């Protein structure tokens, strides 16, 4: 199983773009909404791990082509933001009006 993450498109748009992949029985594609992003899980059954990985890679290539810049890849949105900030030597200031500070905790955990 390989998990990818997408942002910036609604679930219905992603569903339309990937409808043919979601109706396949092997490999399979499942989509679920998770905190401002979508999780795409690709699974495959094959005689060997290498064959399953090849099937998954084919589906991933199609997803990358169709979703373009909206596909983050294996990283979650918080991981991508934290990595880009580090790579560019940037920081951000946050003011969250809730006690739990979810954005702060998500970024600082990376």
From TrEMBL:
A Pfam short name:
CinA_KH
Q: Which domain of life is it from?
A: Bacteria
Q: Which residues form the CinA KH domain?
A: 2-71
Its protein name is Competence/damage-inducible protein A
> From what organism does this protein derive?
Candidatus Thermofonsia Clade 3 bacterium
Source organism lineage?
Bacteria, Bacillati, Chloroflexota, Candidatus Thermofontia, Candidatus Thermofonsia Clade 3
